[in-house]
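**User:**
Make up any protein.

**Assistant:**
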Amino acid sequence: MKPMRVLQVVTIMNRGGLETMLMNYYRKIDRSKIQFDFMVHRMDRGHYDDEIEELGGKIFRMPAIRPGRYREYIRSLDDFFKVNNTYKVVHAHINENSGFVLRAAKYANVPCRIAHSHTSDLGIDYKFPFRLYGRFIMKDIPTNYYACSSRAASWLFGNKVNKSGKVKIINNAVNLNEYKFNQEIRNSVRSDLKIENKLVIGHVGRFHSSKNHSFLIEIFREIYNENPDTVLLLAGEGPTRLKIEQKVKKLGLTNNVKFLGVRTDIPRLMQAMDIFLFPSFFEGLPVVLVEAQAAGLPIFASNTITRDTNITGTISFFNIKIKATTLAKDILTSNNERHDTFTILKEKGFDSVSVAKGLEGYYLENSLEMERV
């Protein structure tokens, strides 16, 4: 018997939090029962594309979703589902744009159409009216509503849907075993990076204005002024990286800030860190903070992030408007001992193995149930 194929809808399968989480699930599901395919919205190959194809998944490339070109995009979707008309489950992860895909899936009689919210906001820019439009057209199109947190559910689906009991919270789970603290790995990574005997502040995230890297650098400057034996590790790529590199150079911090680019070894890298710093303007329930907690790191995160993120009690939230000097002192005077968080994260359902098995059941049960309706 062939496995049921589930279409996962994303932007591009690069090493972001959502994409890494999906790959964690993909590796752990029983692929004799469920097989993932991916609809992406970039022509470039993603970091995970090779692995997806090795695991048996198909990758379908669609045009980027751009305001003013919605008609063209909708026609592409309709054409896609005319040809690929055997899907029983379409699981969309592109926030307010999910409505376009799920609408086409509905007209193609796909019985299970999942809209999944992964963020609590997207900020206000020139695309904001189009985001509101995307949320509006999603009304009544999904058969299932998933979110990483209650706050993310309210943002995308509205308070009425969130409070109706229709939304299922799917934990942003990680492979806990990969993040368990190991002194030998810590020593090896710190040696490779030449940061032995340093206080290591870490951050993992795409270089984007929403991640607030500029403030992160200001905080680090104040920490460095108090303790020159401090290093900042920045893992990730993105459109604001050059701007941040220029700021680091201007502040004379080049020797103490390491730009590591996209990494395939985040669990190992977190072993080398002492403190994790996360000053984002907004998030849903960021996977990277689950990873940092799984690594046992003390974490300082902005208060714009939902308190649901604090699964283990190891996150200290700070006011997003706090002065860098004040926060730096709080960090330097904090207890930066690591914590053993494996048991609590597993008990609270943040192990990717358990969540993957749960998803298998959701897909199979929901597709059969919707076919009966």
